[in-house]
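Molecular record:
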Amino acid sequence: MGRTRVLVVEDDQIILDLITTRLDIAGYDTYFARDGFEGLKRLHELRPSALVLDLNMPRLDGFGLLRKMRQEGLNVPTMVLTARNQPDDVQQAITLGARDFLAKPFKDEQLLQRVGRLLRRAPVRPTKASLPVESPPAVRPPIDDDPQPFLL
């Protein structure tokens, strides 16, 4: 079984290197794109388990990528990571499907905790071989007591 794939869409090379290196060290298979158009292409190619997305990018920004993902039915758990920390930006990102919002600058520990939470809350995509013949009764997941206001 391979490691968990995380796609990082970020145009700033220094931030991109920081994020991908930190996620690699933590055990994720990280991939990157430098703008929304490249990010959309990589989403289709890689089918990552999570997406870390900047908002301010050339050609197609993060909001545009979130819109395209919604139009194309790409339901990848997404964390917006940006210097834009205005309430309207947060609301728009969440409305467009982002599950979390982390402002730059950030600490490595914050990034890793948020990506881990994003993946734990990601819908499981079962393969045909793993589908049970008879579904077990639904079990509610434990309540997360960590108060993070933007994680949906």
